[in-house]
Amino acid sequence: MSQLGVPELLIIALVLVLLFGAKKLPEMARGVGRSLRIFKSETAKLREDDDDTHTVQAQAQAPAQPQPQPVQPSQIQAAPAPALSAEEQARQLEEQAARLRAAAASQPDKRV
């Protein structure tokens, strides 16, 4: 394969200037730079998550520690109520919004 030399790079730069205009090139370069920074940070986060996964798996494969003694029934506290499903939460929010709309509609307009 042929390598790009200085004359080829100048021709490519000239074509880019002709296609996009001199004003658009810096904006495009900034956009590409931002995209690359975001991509780099996301890949770093993925690597950290991957490292965390390996750590968790290594801990899971470690020999099991002795089980603690069972808790006496008198020491057990009541468990918190189970979390609502997304549908149930959405339904409750819709009901609350309807009540607020009805209350707002029943009050006289206080704007002067």
Describe what this molecule looks like in 3D:
The protein has 112 residues and is an all-alpha fold. It has 3 helices and no strands. The radius of gyration is 31 Å and the shape is flat.
Q: How many separate helices?
A: 3
Beta content comes to under 5%
Are there runs of 5+ residues with pLDDT below 50, and where? none
> Structural class of the secondary elements?
mainly alpha
Strand/helix succession: HHH
Shape: flat
Mean pLDDT: 78
User: What about the largest sheet?
Assistant: none
In short:
Helix content is 66%, strand content 0%. The chain has 112 residues and is mostly helical.
Core attributes:
0% strand; mainly alpha; flat; 112 residues
Topology:
Blueprint: H1 6-20, H2 24-61, H3 86-106
